[in-house]
Amino acid sequence: MEKKEKADVFKTVLDNGIRLIVKENRSLPIVSIQASFLGGFRFEKENQNGISQFMAVMVTKGTKNHSSLEIARKVESMAGSLNGFSGYNSFGLTFTFLSQHFEEAFSLFTEVIKQPSFDSEEMEKRRRVILAAIQQQEDDLGRMVFKLFRKTLFQKHPYRMDTLGTLDSIQKLTQKNLKEYYQRIVVPQNMVLTVVGDVDLNQVVDSVKKGFGDLKGRDVVGPSIPEEPSFQKIRRSEIYKAKEQAHFVLGFLGTTFQHKDRYAMEVLEAALSSQGGRLFHQLRDQESLAYALAFTAKPNLDPGYIGVYMGTHPAKLEKAIDGVLMELRKVKEEGLREEEVERAKKYLIGNFEIGLQTNGAQANQISLDELYGLGFDHYQKYPQEIRKVSREDVNRVAKEYFDLEVYAIAIIRPPVEKKE
Amino acid sequence: MRHSRFFLGLGTIFVVIFLWEPGFSSAGDRFHQFTTENDLKVILEENRGTPVVALQIWTKVGSADEKDEEAGMCHFIEHMIFKGTEKRKVREMAREIESLGGYINAYTSYDQTVYHITIASRYAATALNILADAVQHSTFDPLELEREREVILEEIRMGKDNPSNKLFNQTMSALFQHHPYRRPIIGFDKTIKSITRDPMVSFFKKWYTPNRMVFIAAGDFSIPEMEGRVRETFKEFKPLSEGIALRIREPEQKEIRTVISHGNFKETYLQIAFPIPSATHEDIPGLDILSHLLAGEEASRLVQKIKLEKGLVNSISCSSFTPKDPGIFIIGATLPPENVEKASEEILKEVIRVKQEGISAEELHRVKVSIESDLIYDRQTVQGEARKIGYYEVIAGDVQFEKEYMRRILLMQSEDVRGIVGKYFKPSRMVISLLLPSEKAIFLRTFL
């Protein structure tokens, strides 16, 4: 078992390949567990888009021995919260509960992961809800414009899809599809189990060995990801919706968790996305182009995206787009000032630490870091990695990744005939 | 130390579960509260768990304190506070806090405007200075005011495109026909366009005074040291006792109200609402229990019956909103438009069923556990703690409120909740508020 100095974070690997990480935190009688698997819509094919999310919904809705309602009641009686999750790159479950219920909670957690029933009647109920959620997405313009942006930026990569899936793909998924997919993803070598909170390390290791030791080992079948063709020219997608505002996302391909540019990219993001940063200052404070404005450049498992988002008055749309291009050009050509970079680094580190106050947040961070190959203790190294980033690093990344001749832009706007 | 006890008395079994005895044994030990010479209320909660601190200033003024023609003034002022004081130019406060790794923001509600910072505890002194500067010395620069006016108009537009926001405002203006809660916090296009600098500065000077504020700190600091700093930092702040106009009381609703609108949306949004008392009323614990029972978790009645069993709605929720003055109980749902009538019927049937059949001991226990444990989960973040303290002090008027509130929750019985349903959920008091997709406007005719 590896032990770290700063905080007691322990990692061990079971015989069948399950990685277990435990961090004791006795300050409150709360425990958070997270089981993470590589998956998410990165693993999906278009005709089964949304299967991971459907699985995440279904996994807590019945096992061999307990119905969906029985599970819900048990969880509530432990003052807990049990949820499946699915995102770009991962699938899993989280369970937070009061520590006095550890044994019962862990037993339920094990049962849910090992023996989900994917009951067909339950599936139909949930399918209906997911289909409605896909429809309802169109009422959330911020979400819609990012969805359109990813479809525009990524021509072949699975990141062009959406977590929820499409009306078509969700309609066609069968119980058999879900069961097979589940068996593919939920294998010990693909599992990282993290426990944070008011627990005893030895008791946890014991429980995990007993509960998951018999899970059979199998090779993980990774996705075959088509190669993303290179960007040749500006890609612009536009959808018309008769609404009060226009929304757009303008951006480029980004970087990965493992890439050397990763930390500099995050500092660049912090500099440009903060309230005190230049985009907010120029585009909102000075020019009043938007209330909602964001810059995002999150690294991903495969190259992610960089994007500037704005919600603006339709009459200001072209001006806003020009404004964004101008600001990005300035950053690319002149670079950020030393003061901006230093402030961004401090902002990033400080908010990273603030964000890790809860057991659940820690379990999530540790779990996914380990899953993505960064190491379970990456969160302890993160601040010093950020401190190492120099102004030159940040400006180099901006120069390299902001390609202003060849970018993707997605727009949702009222039809031009709309009268004021 | 956790323990449970069974009490047998009067033929009834009371199951009282103490989930957790805090390390600090009584609420009094956790807090230190005092009022400065210039009438600023200060509440400090020390917690050395993580090296983070949350500092908040709660100003006891919100949209409900505005006159109709100045609707949105508080929110506009909130925006302007970040746009410069005598010492710090536009956005410099945010930059300073960010350069220290912190987070700064604010929000305006019906009864309060809150400025908050979360930051590493070693920078608490700077954060304190910034908050004190912000609420005392804003310059309301005329050019910045014009710029910010445009930003707020954009925010209003964004709200109009948001169906949940639109529906909530519709519901509030239907249930409150006289009381200022009927107005949206952000105000209206018309009022925001007509607000000028002089009235804004007068409003600011009248309301942003120490006697109308509460300063809260929660997290990693020493109480005596923080007390000293707070007294020192705010010592020049002059109190002002100007009369505050009483708010119009909402007269009793005599008959059902229905309001239907449509918009360019895909989903149909429904709210069924009832008036309820304010936060400290003795019936509120029962209403909170009812709210959890109906739609608190997956195993709740409305989720199980209306969403899953009958498949009438796509989502369903329940909340008991208790601001300073009498509030509102809302059951909300998203659903296919053709189900509106049936779903409303079935929802109301479930509510009445609580009155007729009561709640089982097991169900009641689960709900109490859920409510009580929420308080423990809140303690995980300093900003969550600070926010709670602010709510208790400003809305409930007593920072020790939690203890009394939990005592009442634990004593609630099935008969109490039945009584509450009978008292508050009468058809004559109901508001039905509906937002339909434009192309489904045909359903307007078939509904009520």
Q: What is the residue-mean pLDDT of chain B, rounded to a whole number?
A: 90
H/E order of the elements of chain B? EEHEEEHHEEHHHHHEHEEHHEEHHHHHEH
How many structural domains does the protein architecture of chain A include? 2
Class derived from helix and strand content of chain A: alpha+beta
CATH homologous superfamily classification of the largest domain in chain B? Metalloenzyme, LuxS/M16 peptidase-like
SS-based structural class of chain B? alpha+beta
- β content of chain B, as a range? 15-25%
Q: Please bin the fraction of helical residues of chain A.
A: 40-55%
The count of β-strands of chain B is 13
What is the CATH top level name of the largest domain in chain B?
Alpha Beta
CATH topology of the largest domain in chain A: Cytochrome Bc1 Complex, Chain A, domain 1
Q: How many distinct helices of chain A?
A: 15
Number of separate strands of chain A: 12
Uncertain segments of chain A are 1-6
Describe the overall structure.
The complex is a heterodimer of chains A (420) and B (448). A seven-stranded mixed β-sheet of chain A has the order 1-2-3-7-4-6-5, sandwiched between helices. Chain A has a five-stranded mixed β-sheet with strand order 8-12-9-11-10, with helices on both faces. Chain A is of the alpha+beta class and 420 residues long. Chain A is built from 15 helices and twelve strands. Helix content of chain B is 43%, strand content 21%. The chains are: A alpha+beta (420), B alpha+beta (448). At the A-B interface, helix 2, helix 4, helix 10 and helix 12 of A face helix 3, strand 6, strand 7, helix 5 and helix 11 of B.
